[in-house]
Amino acid sequence: MTSVLATALSLVLGSALCWASIEKLTLPQMVQRIDNAIYGEILAKRVEAVALPDGSGEMFFTTLTIKGNSVLNNAASTVEVSYPGGFLDEEHGVFNSEEPSADDVRIGNRVVAFYKWSPDMGGGFASNALYASHGGLFRTFVSRKGETIVQGRGPGYAVATNQVLSGLEKQAQELYAKRKR
């Protein structure tokens, strides 16, 4: 019972302490709020446990290592992007209803991830936070024409419909240039 209460408390505190949440965002709104976005391959995934400030349990964060290029300036980079939730093993961890699906974050997937630095996602855990949780991660695929397509998620998401990656990059770069003025 104590572990169930600690898990429930970590979910409540996690949602209260983490600014990352699902928001209805257009691409212009997303670009206004983020530090960067990357298109690349998920190379690694790890889960870390962080003690709750009152010592009553743990919070869990999943961190993805993504290698690719910035959507905003095309610079090659490898970044770590984190979100609340995840499991160390079958017994230690927590689900978060806003985290990306297991299929979305498989090692080897090519994705577009929007992120923003957070000095404290909860319990003192600092990382590039996946912006808007699963709403900031978009899978990609290659079309029959050989174009990389970013899969849209529907109305209310920054990428609502499927888009050619180069077109999304162009839009995001133009929006980012306006933001910097």
Task: Name the features.
3 helices, single chain, 22% helix, 181 residues, globular, 10 strands
What is this structure, in a nutshell?
With 181 residues, the protein is an alpha+beta fold. It is 22% helix and 36% strand.
Overall SS class: alpha+beta
Taken in chain order, the helices and strands follow as HHEEEEEEEEEEH
Give the terminus-to-terminus CA distance.
54 Å
**Main sheet?**
5 strands, mixed, barrel
Q: Which radius of gyration do the C-alpha atoms yield? A: 17 Å
What level of helicity do the residues show?
10-25%
| Beta-strand proportion | 35-45%
Our count of helices gives: 3
Major sheet strand order: 1-2-3-7-6
Count of domains: 1
Could you explain the architecture of this structure?
This protein is α+β, with helices and mostly antiparallel strands. The protein has one domain. The protein is 22% helix and 36% strand. It contains three helices and ten strands; from the N terminus they run ααββββββββββα. The strands form two sheets. Strands 1-2-3-7-6 form a five-stranded mixed beta barrel. A two-stranded antiparallel sheet has the order 4-5. A hairpin with a 5-residue loop joins β8 and β9. The longest helix has 16 residues. The radius of gyration is 17 Å and the shape is globular. It starts with a helix and ends with a helix. The N terminus is likely disordered.
